[in-house]
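Data availability (excerpt). The following record was deposited with the supplementary files.
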Amino acid sequence: MRNRVEEKFLEFYEGWIFQLEQYLHQLLIAHNNINTMSEIELRGLISKLTAHHKAYYTAKWAAIGEDVLAFFGPVWLNPLEKSCFWLTGWKPSTAFRMLDRLRKSWRPTVVLVEAQVRRLEELRVKTRFDEERIETEMERYQ
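Predicted structure:
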């Protein structure tokens, strides 16, 4: 189930992808008509694409500020993109290792209450179980 931050970003992302496809279409047209387009038109298109990508990272950064964990398992990625995370070694349990390192390095300033620690451990166990299930399934496919 998605939370509010995920839903909001997914809505933004779908609109962003739609606009990106329109820009890519414009780039293809520009490529096919490179000899007839002015430098000003080409620079304008490049400027639009640059601003479009900047908007993506601005929105993503704002959403991360609201809920960083939502970005460790992005709901807007397609199955191929998600599998690339696994192939490169990124798994959800990586977030727990990062949290452990942060807690150790910030020990005096970051203190979790017992309920938070217990919930984190429950989530860690569930995540590890899910990872093992997925890895077993991936091994079967190989």
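Summary of structural features: The CA atoms of residues 99 and 105 lie 10 Å apart.
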